[in-house]
# Entry
Amino acid sequence: MYQADHQQGWVDLADLLAGPALRALTGYSQNSIRRIDWGKFASAIEAVAGPTALTPSTSLKRR
# Structure
């Protein structure tokens, strides 16, 4: 059985950007999945959380 492990690359970005700020980084879409401008997204996250905010944490313990 295949089991994915995404913990190592997980970066918790909860509550860093509000919904309107996130929607401003996407094009209009009636769908729930929207394309995001990664450069603008990364800049917005780094502006509120610092330049290493998108770097995965290596301090998490594996189970």
Notes: The helical segments are 19-23, 38-49. Residues 8 and 59 are 9 Å apart (CA to CA). The longest helix spans residues 38-49.
